[in-house]
């Protein structure tokens, strides 16, 4: 995991929470030079995430509203209705990659829910999950052995998370891990909308052999507040035909398998 990206993620959060800070203050917080912190700040300014006003840096609520306003009120129900057909195709194709007796981890998300729904009732597999809707899709598939990582319930994403759940994930090994994201950016990496998702997503990365990103094309070039991975951390990306040629070329240059459905 890149220290720079972790710093950038933390930097956004500090600026947003503190309602403004100087480069000198931020450099001291991160124990880096002002030159280093200014490079980070300039990158965030170019992306429209923050603004510089009389030497102080502020979170840019106006220009980031289309990207980040939903973070505070993110609801899985509204996400399910967005790009519904594309997500259904992505989930259905992802299901075809699963083999008999696979051990899987399915991340929380509206697209991964379509994957769980598409799994055939005859499939024999072991699946770890931590999302209520995904669990509901699996319980009637009698050939599937379910491992559920419970904990505190987050109604906006239907996700459960806890230290005990993390421990369960860390002691589980999977052949394939299916991961969702709320944004993918060329330089700022792969992000989600809620800070509480980060630890779980990073834990499932370490527990699986093949990491597969399920993401509809509207999420490319989007930035959310909570960074959890780099694009090159994924082995496979499954998306829809709305993806741009620029992104197709970038993914191929990183030697990541790309499936467009």
TrEMBL record:
Superkingdom of this protein's organism: Bacteria
Gene Ontology molecular functions: DNA binding; DNA-binding transcription factor activity
InterPro entries associated with the record: Carb_Metab_HTH_regulators, DeoR-like_C, DeoR_HTH, NagB/RpiA_transferase-like, Tscrpt_reg_HTH_DeoR_CS, WH-like_DNA-bd_sf, WH_DNA-bd_sf
Pfam families xref list: DeoRC, HTH_DeoR
Keywords (A to Z) from UniProt: DNA-binding, Transcription, Transcription regulation
Domain HTH deoR-type: 4-59
The name this protein goes by in its record: DeoR/GlpR transcriptional regulator
Natural source organism: Candidatus Galacturonatibacter soehngenii
């Amino acid at each position: 995991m890149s220290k720079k990206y972790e710093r950038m993620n933390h930097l956004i959060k500090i600026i947003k929470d503190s309602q403004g800070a100087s480069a000198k203050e931020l450099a001291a917080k991160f124990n880096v030079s002002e030159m280093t912190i200014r490079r980070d700040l300039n990158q965030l300014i170019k992306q429209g995430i923050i603004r510089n006003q009389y030497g102080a840096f502020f979170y840019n609520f106006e220009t980031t509203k289309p990207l980040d306003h939903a973070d505070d009120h993110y609801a899985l129900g509204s996400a399910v209705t967005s790009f519904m057909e594309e997500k259904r195709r992505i989930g259905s194709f992802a299901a075809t990659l699963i083999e008999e007796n696979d051990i899987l981890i399915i991340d929380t998300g509206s697209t991964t829910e379509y994957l769980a729904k598409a799994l055939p009732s005859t499939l024999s597999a072991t699946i770890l999950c931590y999302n209520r809707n995904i669990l509901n899709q699996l319980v009637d598939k009698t050939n599937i052995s379910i491992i559920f990582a419970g904990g505190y319930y987050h109604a906006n994403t239907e996700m459960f998370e806890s230290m005990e759940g993390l421990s369960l994930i860390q002691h589980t090994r999977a052949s394939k891990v299916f991961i969702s994201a709320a944004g993918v950016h060329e330089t700022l990496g792969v992000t989600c909308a809620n800070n509480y998702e980060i630890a779980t997503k990073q834990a499932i990365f370490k527990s699986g052999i093949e990491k597969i990103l399920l993401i509809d094309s509207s999420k490319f070039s989007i930035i959310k507040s909570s960074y959890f991975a780099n694009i090159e951390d994924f082995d496979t990306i499954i998306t829809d035909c709305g993806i741009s040629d620029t992104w197709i070329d970038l993914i191929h240059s990183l030697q990541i398998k790309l499936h467009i459905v």
